[in-house]
Records
---
Amino acid sequence: MAKRQSRYVCQACGAQAPKWSGRCEACGEWNSMVEEALPQSTPGGLSGGRSGRALVFDRLDETRADGQVLPRLTSGIGEFDRVCGGGLIPGSAVLIGGDPGVGKSTVLLQAAAMLARGKAGAPVPCAYISGEESIDQIRLRATRLGLADAPVALAAATSVREILAGLESNLTEAAVVIVDSIQTMFLDSLESAPGTVAQVRGSAQELIRLAKQRGFTLLLVGHVTKEGLIAGPKVLEHMVDTVLAFEGERGHQFRILRAVKNRFGPTDEIGVFEMSDGGLIEVENPSALFLTERQGEVTGACVFAGIEGTRPILVEVQALVSASPLGTPRRAVVGWDQARLAMVLAVLEARCGLSFAGRDVYLNVVGGLRLNEPAADLAMAAAIVSAAGNQAVPSDCVLFGEIGLSGEVRQVGRRDLRLKEAAKLGFARAFAPAAKARKDGRSETPLEVETMGHVADLVARIGAPLGDTEARRSL
Ligand code: TYD
Ligand code: MG
């Protein structure tokens, strides 16, 4: 008998090697190589095989044979539908990743119940398959969410073969199938344990194949490793049509559903939820929520007028600058990019003569939101300058603008939308880069804009008063 062959597969990136090693050569991850049995036969070429069915082409410029346009399935949970690009597409596969306990099972159970009840349009038959909880536990959760009467098909299973057989039999005509979670699923044809790259990839492939063939929407839950990656392979992200990330700090009640990849919609969209006793509640006006605990005029805090997807969101940013006992002062940031903070500090030092040597700088985005926009630069700089100089930024003011390396403040997109949202929430002025000249020569703004052309303008406006040389020197 031929010797049974095996290979080693990195659980982080999916790379394969013939020999075990302590560190994956492809991604550098330590201790991630796991042995897997090689398939017994290697696939041959096409020669000598049976002749298959010939490919049939469809035409782009013709409608479907039945003349229908694929409708999107909407759950009626506005925040969820928007992140999916306006609803779920039949036949598509969606992966929802997030930390344990962030609320993935909860949001999907709520979405399934709403779809099945037909809160927005015709009722959509849904099936919820859990590999982590028993049917009774799911019922208990549903009761707590007030959804116990929703006509959702429930199952507790981990064997993909069993699930596929169940879905393929005509008994369940599910249009939306939820699998919670892909890490608990296993194919009995593979020898490796559930949760390994081979199992996750194999199980997902089988489920997605059936979804495309039968035209149901597949929602897969994926756990996230401590590094923030969807556990196991990146390959899973390539296989699905949409990847949603469910984010939120444990201590905060806010949860943010973010589209990371979407073949059928925009990727910069977010949905904001609040975790309550009765499950996740959608937050229609996130700006008001992120500003609820603001305490008027305090030094080191200001409000950034940001855009998430198509929506303006105002959020408070805070900075603290204090004398450092450490040889290398600390630069800590929550909710923003560390490298971006280093850049803003360098610009303030080089272009405005401020010094942060020997001082710790802490930066925090309130409410657990994570900002990715370069437009946040000006607000971050303002919070830092304000904290360092002990001068408050006016409390009726919002800020936005990108800072360049020479200290210039650059224009950012969606200016009008940002200003309008700020005016709506009662702000009276904005610190912002100069507006582009409009073709019609009009410049209508709903609030007073103080133009910031350079970070030095900002320092002059909110830094320590000019006459106070002692304070300036200590900056
Ligand atoms: P869950 O959806 O089980 O998280 P995941 O599937 O992402 O692991 O959410 C569990 C958390 O949500 C848990 O910490 C308790 C909290 N929760 C509420 O606060 N209210 C609720 O109504 C429910 C169902 C859960
Ligand atoms: Mg769960």
Note: The pocket of thymidine-5'-diphosphate (ligand 1) is lined by residues 98, 100-106, 141, 144-145, 275, 277-279 (CB under 6 Å).
---
Amino acid sequence: MTDHPRVPLAGVIGHPIAHSRSPALHTYWLKRYGIRGHYVPLDIAPADLQAMLHALPKMGFVGANVTIPHKEAILKIPDVIITDRAALIGAANTLIFRKDGRIQADNTDGSGFIANLRQNAPQWNPAAGPAVIFGAGGAARAVVAALIEVGVPEVRITNRTRPRAEALRSDFGAKVTVMEWVQAANMLEDAATVVNTTSLGMTGKPDFRVPLDALRPEAVVTDLVYTPLMTQFLIEAQAKGCTVVDGLGMLLHQAAPGFERWFGHRPEVDEETRRAVLMS
Ligand code: NAP
């Protein structure tokens, strides 16, 4: 017996999990690069999380992605090694089951967010002006951390539930300012980067409606929602002349580092990858 069986296994842990695009994405990459391995959905209830986490490596798993509702809970499990960026964000989305038996928890949402903007809006300059963030949930935390890291001078946050936005200010410091949800449109003047991190605009949810009159055409506007790909928010920003970037690229880019760690090959995030996921 070796430390790991010859065919490595990985998966995505969530509850529910049937909606996840991650199995289609990783399975596509495995086939594309001719790698022997499997990536499966793992529906694990919160009460079973700790026991299952310790069982998975024994079953041949080399790692996993983590999604709702486990992204924060995973950091509270004893003996998990937490990377600095996962600790800062307060959530993990990528687990490595190390050969020494330890579990490492990382967060690649922020790097995936930045990689998506750099790939699809190559002229984007984070230092060109303030970033405006709508929403203050788990995804917003990763986005704010990443934007500060790449040199955004000011991050303006607004959220329906103001204390969640205030919590981001106290965690991320003086570059963050908080504004009232009802005055959200006023934050857009001179913004260089505008991000919807709320779940509004997703198929089945109400549209995300904010007057975009103050938006400059030089702004790069992105939405974390990727069903539909072109949200009403992005359609309106595009009509104002802005460069818009949909959220699917973030999903693809956040997955790449995990795939590389588990299966030993850095996968391409390109048109072919997008098509494969969209057709799944
Ligand atoms: P979350 O922690 O549950 O946060 C949800 C956010 O949406 C909060 O700011 C919440 O405001 C806001 N919201 C929900 N319903 C609202 C409403 N009716 N009116 C105003 N605000 C509302 O979720 P999350 O993990 O941050 O995810 C947020 C979105 O990002 C989801 O659509 C998710 O699918 C997407 N996402 C995409 C990627 C990607 O790779 N593209 C990665 C991560 C997440 P309150 O605080 O007031 O409730």
Note: Residues 109, 135-140, 159-161, 164, 197-200, 202, 206, 224-226, 247, 250-251, 254 surround NAP (CB under 6 Å).
